[in-house]
Design brief:
By secondary structure, the protein is an alpha/beta fold. 46% of the residues lie in helices and 15% in strands.
Length: 314
């Protein structure tokens, strides 16, 4: 395989001069540039990107750890990351984990081996304390409040907005509240804040029979609506974990000509605008953009983005 030393030998110029031509640098005469380029073309030589990255100590690769892409939460964060990465010429590698701790350790080991300049954990199965141990090998950013763990983060402030939303629910006389979640509140920081806000407002834990986990898609929302109806639970208010999911829930009641319980979505998606129902916008695209900015720097920074309760039932 042809390398830069072969180009130097065949052209009669030094390796440093060939390198300047390959990297389009100045301080090379026109004659030398033409002769070296002729040899490069003749040998069909292209630089080795891996070797070049190692030499400059930067890959311009950022790994983004996602459990999956089917929930709006992760898609919106990824949109924000991709937008900022494009501006600065970074490559974004999507690393699907499904919350598998073994997979996540593999990604961290890849960071250790300099496959990426940084990792962004949109969510995680590993404890943050374990993830933070790898900070000595490269930048790592989490998309939640890291709490007592010292590591960079970009996340949305949810708790106070959840309290605001549940306060509205309580003030309007609803008491049998159903909650849809991605993961159980003992495993998910988002679900934990949802339950904590509910408990703050209502003074009790939600009825566990009215909490449905593993809800990530429109179809899951539809099935959750079926569960609430067929089990006879009949909530008077449903707190869904995305607008798409809320729309699926709503559609079950429409398809079966049933009265639709009051409900609210999250993530400020198009369905809530079109159908006119309330939602909570966590500004996740901004979270993604902020996460990228921290990941592409060396700063141990924490950026908090406010969430917004959009009340369309006034």
């Amino acid at each position: 395989m042809t390398n830069i030393h072969d180009i130097a030998k065949l052209s009669g110029y030094s390796v440093s001069t060939v390198s300047r031509v390959l990297n389009q640098k100045n301080y090379v005469s026109d004659d030398a540039r033409v002769k070296i380029q002729q040899v490069i073309d003749q040998m069909d030589y292209v630089p080795n990107d891996v070797a070049r990255d190692l030499s400059r100590g930067k890959t311009y690769n950022i790994g983004v750890v996602l459990p999956y892409t089917k929930h709006a939460y992760f898609g919106q964060i990824l949109d924000g990351i991709m937008s900022e990465a494009y501006k600065l010429g970074y490559r974004v590698l999507v690393l699907l984990s499904n919350y598998d701790q073994k997979k996540e350790r593999e990604f961290l080991e890849q960071l250790r081996r300099k496959a990426f300049d940084a990792l962004i954990f949109t969510s995680h199965g590993l404890p943050l304390e374990e993830i933070a141990k790898y900070l000595k090998y490269g930048q790592i950013v989490c998309c939640q409040n890291p709490g007592d763990v010292k590591m960079p983060a970009a996340y949305t402030e949810r708790y106070h907005t959840y309290v605001e939303a549940f306060t509205w629910v309580k003030e309007h006389g609803y008491s049998k509240i159903a909650i849809m979640q991605n993961r159980d509140y003992r495993k998910s920081a988002t679900s934990e804040k949802t339950i904590a806000a509910f408990q703050n407002v209502f003074g009790v834990m939600p009825d566990p029979k009215l909490i449905v986990n593993n809800i990530t898609t429109y179809d899951n929302g539809y099935e959750a609506g079926k569960y609430y109806h067929d089990s006879g639970l009949n909530p008077d208010f449903v707190f869904a974990n995305s607008d798409d999911i809320a729309t699926g829930f709503r559609q079950f009641y429409i398809d079966n000509q049933l009265e639709i319980p009051a409900f609210m979505g999250q993530e400020g998606q198009l369905p809530s605008q079109i159908l006119g129902f309330s939602t909570i916008d966590h500004q996740l695209t901004k979270v993604g953009a902020a996460a990228f900015k921290v990941a592409s720097s060396d700063e141990q920074q924490i950026i908090r983005i406010p969430s917004i309760f959009i009340n369309r039932c006034k």
